[in-house]
Specification:
The chain is an alpha/beta fold. The chain has 4 domains: 13-168, Distorted Sandwich (Spo0b-associated Gtp-binding Protein, Chain: A), CATH 2.70.210.12; 174-352, 3-Layer(aba) Sandwich (Rossmann fold); 369-448, GMP Synthetase, Chain A, domain 3 (2-Layer Sandwich), CATH 3.30.300; 456-528. The protein is built from 14 helices and 19 strands. It has helices at residues 70-74, 139-142, 184-191, 267-285, 304-319, 335-352, 389-397, 403-416, 418-424, 454-457, 464-469, 474-496, 502-505, 522-527; strands spanning 19-25, 58-62, 77-79, 99-103, 107-111, 116-120, 126-130, 161-168, 174-177, 209-215, 218-224, 251-257, 294-299, 323-326, 360-362, 376-380, 383-387, 432-435, 442-445. The two termini are 52 Å apart. The structure holds guanosine-5'-triphosphate (GTP) and magnesium ion. Magnesium ion (MG) binds at residues 184-185, 204-205, 224. Its EC number is 3.6.5.-.
Length: 528
């Protein structure tokens, strides 16, 4: 819509949004880089590729001054900033910035299936809803004594990505409940500075209004929710949706219209209808709403007939154990007593409940492979499916265009015991081994004979993976070295004396000079 001067005219928008669907994604981690230090007269320096920065998280944070979710209604896609890639000369990429999404107190976070992930209460409370991806290691960080100049780097990982719904449950101390047009909005307007819409037709209030009331030394909040009618708990009228707003309240006030001219309605039956709705709601949702103390405000007593009706029902209500107040939102009669009664309940409830501490909630991915295990292997349709956080992550970090990087992945998987387990389970060479997310899986040919890493390939005839399991001590190494020297001397002697060397040519042991099992650094790169 364009106004007179071509400017955007403000479009009417709902001012209170209490339920939104949001798509959140952590920033991607930056790629590590493979680079070799270059200097004059030193053409082949060491690896100096820096690490990629971590992607930024998406964080939900309760803000004391935030009252609606409307911003997310307008912009439902949010993501953290990506980490920057590493660079040569050991320069790390910068980390992506976290994206902090401020939400109102009382925001319930659910996943796409409707499962509650968190209930965010108390200003400052935070939830890391989508973690950023880790940056990949550069080749400098991947170098080790067995892999002096890696020609590859790890890729940054994508951040978590998920669809959530945010639902606002008003966190108020006192909830006003009652039939449409009972005068709930009028009452909150008379008690506080809230200025809700008031009209003589039902369902004037469509979303809750909050007001702040001070009585004596207690300051508390009062929520005016949309009118309830019979069947509300089954979705009639405005339905379930707003009953959840009174769930958090310490006390409920029945606002009863004593001036109604509707046939078939009177204060007692109105109260019964509302109570039945609360009960049905509590049963359907498992809420403990029925435990809340109740007050009764017999409203509109400025109307003579209404004052009389209020007098008739008072005894009956008190006999039910209820605290009853004659009030008039119009003349403000009885409001002082009512507000002090509310304050008293609120104060005693506050004294019982300790102040909620500011919490930071971090959702960790559930251990996919089960407790205490790094991975699981299942056989499905003739394929071997390897599941586990680490294998999945390592696959994401691998640059499959680089053979050395693929070898490094195979090395890591073997160190974790994947190959051993596959052999144990009866996998044969040529079988498909699937690792990774369903839609992002990588299929390998199982080939247990081929040495894993590119550098491992450099030493022909040795299967280093066998040696890895039996770590040798330095004493053993020295002994083996001495044995090898002796053996070489034997061969030399044999050559010099013209004897055939065949008998001495194949020692029955191997001596990798650079045994990967002796590198203490492997665990560190595996943890990334
Ligand atoms: N005479 C009189 N009229 C009142 C009083 N309180 C509210 N009303 C009138 O009752 C009508 C309904 O008032 P609201 O405050 O909008 O009622 P509500 O309970 O918020 O209604 P919904 O939002 O539709 O559920 C309006 O016309 C008010 O002016 C009162 O104390 N005395
Ligand atoms: Mg209202």
């Amino acid at each position: 819509m364009r106004g007179q001067y071509g400017k955007e005219r403000p479009v009417a928008v709902p001012s209170f949004v209490d339920k939104v669907t949001l798509h959140v994604a952590g920033g991607s981690g930056g790629d590590g880089v493979a680079s070799v230090h270059r200097e004059k007269f030193k053409p082949l320096g060491g690896p100096d590729g820096g690490n990629g920065g971590n992607g930024g998280d998406v964080i939900l944070q309760v803000g004391a001054d935030v009252t609606t979710l409307i911003d997310y209604h307008h912009e439902p896609h949010r993501r953290g900033t990506n980490g920057a890639p590493g660079a040569g000369s050991n320069r790390s990429g910068s980390n992506g910035e976290d994206l902090v999404l401020r939400v109102p107190d009382g925001t319930v976070v659910k996943d796409a299936s409707g499962e509650v992930l968190a209930d965010l209460i108390g200003p400052g409370t935070e939830l890391v809803i989508a973690a950023g991806g880790r940056g990949g290691l550069g080749n400098a960080a991947l170098a080790s004594s067995k892999r002096k100049a890696p020609g590859f780097a790890l890729k940054g990982e994508p951040g978590d990505e998920l669809t959530i719904t945010l639902e606002l449950k008003v966190v108020a101390d006192v909830g006003l409940i009652g039939f449409p047009s009972a005068g709930k909005s009028s009452l909150i307007a008379a008690l506080s500075r809230a200025r809700p819409k008031i009209a003589d037709y039902p369902f004037t209030t469509l979303v809750p209004n909050l007001g702040v009331v001070t009585a004596g030394s207690t300051t508390f909040t009062v929520a005016d929710v949309p009118g309830l009618i019979e069947g509300a708990s089954e979705g009639r009228g405005l339905g379930h949706d707003f009953l959840r707003h009174v769930e958090r309240c310490a006390a409920l006030v029945h606002v009863i219209d004593c001036a109604t001219v509707d046939p078939g309605r009177d204060p007692l039956s109105d109260l019964d209808v509302i109570e039945a709705e609360l009960k049905a709601y509590a049963e359907a949702t498992g809420s403990d709403l029925l435990d809340r103390p109740r007050l009764v405000a017999l409203n509109k007593t400025d109307v003579p007939d209404a004052k009389e009706i209020a007098g008739f029902v008072r005894d009956e209500l008190e006999a039910r154990g209820l605290d009853v107040y004659d009030v008039s939102a119009a003349s403000h009669a009885g409001l002082r007593e009512l507000s002090f009664a509310m304050a008293e309940i609120v104060a005693s409830r506050r004294a019982e409940t300790p102040v909620a501490e500011v919490t930071r909630i971090v959702l960790r991915p559930k251990a996919e492979a089960g407790v205490g295990r790094e991975f699981t292997i299942d056989q499905v349709n003739g394929q071997w499916i390897v599941r586990g956080e680490k294998p999945k992550r390592w696959v994401r970090q691998t640059d499959f265009a680089n053979d050395e990087a693929v070898g490094f992945l195979a090395d890591r998987l073997n160190r974790l015991g994947v190959e051993d387990e596959l052999l144990k389970r009866g996998a044969r060479a040529g079988d498909d081994v699937v690792i990774g997310d369903e839609d992002n899986a990588v299929v390998f040919d199982f080939d247990p004979q081929i040495p894993a890493g590119a550098e491992v390939l450099g030493r022909r005839g040795e299967d280093l993976r066998i040696d890895q399991s039996d770590r040798r001590t330095n004493v053993q190494r020295r002994e083996e070295l001495a044995a090898r020297r002796a053996h070489e001397a034997e061969i030399r002697e044999a050559r010099e004396s013209g004897r055939p060397e065949s008998s001495a040519a194949t020692p029955d042991w191997t001596f990798p000079e650079d045994d990967p099992a002796l590198d203490g650094d492997d665990s560190d790169e595996d943890r990334r």
